[in-house]
Automatic annotation (TrEMBL):
Protein name: Small ribosomal subunit protein mS26
UniProt cross-references to InterPro entries, sorted A to Z: Ribosomal_mS26
Keyword Transmembrane: no
Natural source organism: Diabrotica virgifera virgifera (western corn rootworm)
Signal peptide start-end: none
Listed GO CC annotations: mitochondrial small ribosomal subunit
Keyword Ribonucleoprotein in annotation: yes
Location(s) in or outside the cell: Mitochondrion
PANTHER family tied to this protein: 28S RIBOSOMAL PROTEIN S26, MITOCHONDRIAL, SMALL RIBOSOMAL SUBUNIT PROTEIN MS26
Pfam families to which the protein is assigned, alphabetical: MRP-S26
Length: 217
């Protein structure tokens, strides 16, 4: 690769005299070029890979087969393609006519291939669309079952709350609940003796019968 430098005049002679070609050197990215070879790599000789004899023979056989096949194909296409134009005269119009006929034939073959690929592509798209639709329907059915199970659980919770709501205090039984609470006061401020005797709090009137509670020693 070369670059043109030192262009100092517009005349052809001076341009020829002052023209200088200089080789463009590519700089390294990792290491400056003036540092040279590293000391650890100064006397290093890359070792060539040694292949086993049988593997080398097999690679050579495959390469020779590939080279022979490609040469045969190239020669076959060259002979067949040249045979179509061998009988054509040197008349440019006749050559152009044969060329257009060959181009038309190739275009028809290409159009058939395109139609075939179009059918295959549309078939693949239809199959993919059907698979996606089936997947979506399965997901919808699964979500529907999940919602149904969730609604059943909610109904069970509602039924349990309805059964428990019989003991709730409402506006209808509010007076009765107040009277019952005043008639049966409950005081949790009590103490227990080592023998299990229950000593009530100071705000509760003790009963004549002393209540005892079992106490684990």
């Amino acid at each position: 690769m070369y670059r043109l430098t030192n262009i100092c005049s517009s005349t052809l002679s001076e341009l020829t005299n002052y023209t200088k070609y200089e080789t463009v050197r590519y700089l390294r990215k990792r290491k400056p070029i003036h540092l040279g070879t590293a000391k650890s790599k100064l006397f290093r000789i890359p070792k060539r890979p040694v292949l086993p004899p049988d593997e080398k023979l097999e690679l050579m056989r495959l390469f020779n087969n590939y080279r022979t096949t490609m040469k045969s194909l190239r020669y076959y296409f060259m002979v067949n393609h040249s045979a179509e134009f061998a009988e054509v005269s040197e008349d440019p119009e006749e050559s152009r006519k044969v060329f257009l006929e060959d181009f038309q034939k190739c275009s028809e073959i290409n159009a058939k291939w395109n139609e075939k690929q179009k059918e295959l592509r549309e078939k693949d798209i239809a199959n993919q669309h059907e698979a996606e639709l089936t997947y979506v329907m399965q997901r919808l059915e699964l979500e529907k079952k999940k919602q149904q199970v969730k609604m059943e659980e909610i109904e069970e919770i509602v039924k349990a709350e309805k059964v428990a709501s019989k003991d709730f205090i409402t506006a209808e039984n509010l007076d009765e609940a107040i009277e019952r609470a005043l008639a049966t006061p409950v005081d949790y401020n009590f103490a227990l003796t080592p023998s299990g005797e229950k000593i009530l709090g100071r705000d509760t009137i003790p009963n004549k019968e002393k209540e005892t509670v079992s106490v684990k020693q």
